[in-house]
Amino acid sequence: MNLPMPDLRHLVRMTDDTGLFEHACGAVPRPAHGYCSDDAGRALALTCGWEDPTADRLSEIYLAFLRHLHLGSGRFALRMGHDRRFIDRDISDDACGRAIFGLGVAAASTAPRHVTEGAPAGDYSLGAHACVMRDLLLTLGYPRASIVGHSLGSGVALQSAYQFPERTERIVLISSGGLGAEVTPLLRAATLPGADTVVAGLSTIPAALTQRLFGVLPALIGRSDARVLADVLRGLTDEHQRRAFLRTARTVIDWRGQTVSASRQLSLLSEVPLLVAWGANDKTIPPQHHHALADRVRHAVTVEIADAGHSPHETALTQVLSALQTFLAATQPFRYVEDRWVRLLTSADPVAARHPAGPVRVRARILVR
Known about the structure:
Layout: H1 9-14, E1 24-25, E2 28-29, E3 35-36, H2 37-47, H3 53-69, E4 70-72, E5 75-76, E6 79-80, E7 86-88, H4 93-110, H5 126-140, E8 145-150, H6 152-163, E9 168-174, H7 185-189, H8 195-203, H9 207-215, H10 226-234, H11 239-252, E10 253-254, E11 257-258, H12 263-266, E12 274-279, H13 288-296, E13 301-305, H14 312-315, H15 317-330, H16 338-346, H17 350-354, E14 365-368
Parallel strand pairs: 8-9, 9-12, 12-13, 13-14
Antiparallel strand pairs: 1-2, 3-6, 4-5, 6-7, 10-11
């Protein structure tokens, strides 16, 4: 939905060149009480993404403040005094959660999703999304990361590993796109002429009603995905987000199916720790795509979740999180070495290039119920 620009006058009063003051007496800031990371996270979520110079200036201050309070591994110090010294380095789960939430909103707002009337079309390719993520990581001070992607996001993760292998430690693919041509007719229809009008109309239907409608289409939508898809569709009432969704879809899908393949990237993953998870009842992307991936990338850890559909990270969160934590603990981060990468690029059999002699490691296959 289209939201009005918030009134930022009080935030301007409460913010200096360091961050957002934690307390006020009415409308009067109390600098002596210092700053707090959870307040900065919420303020960042509010101010980022607007085409407004005041909002841009405030969001840059909050982002810089959170970077200063970051203690590593996604943890943030709680408070800092007005004298720029830490009052304490206690770690609060609530504060960390709000800081990460604000950073997530900021990351989403930097993605190419704003399309204005009469402006040139933005670049919605996988490569453009990979560059946005690279820039965000560098801004936050992370030279390397383990990349987790869902559906289209998995394609972004694979593209990131291909474009920026030196910044990739591990890859986690959840219900990944780009592994085969087949995809649900619903997404293929989104690439047809007139799809904008149809999606705009459907997005105005209450989510509860849409969920019941999806429930009677078991051949097209997994039962566990009905609520998730209804919420996604409801979010496309905003014209800019709807256009961005459709333009992004058309970069990887046409009326026949998926048009982008990750086959080249897969041949380079023989040294990159890889976790692949999917739902056994996925109607959006066929599970056999992931079976074929596991057969090709023989060191991959695979997790098939019974009764889950296309969004197991939402409908079967406990199973996905358990597999992810185990995977992170059991694997060592990939380290890019150019000579080895060139050998993989020029080898007819990248697995053989990594294992010129001796057996290939046995992959782990897990069925979670």
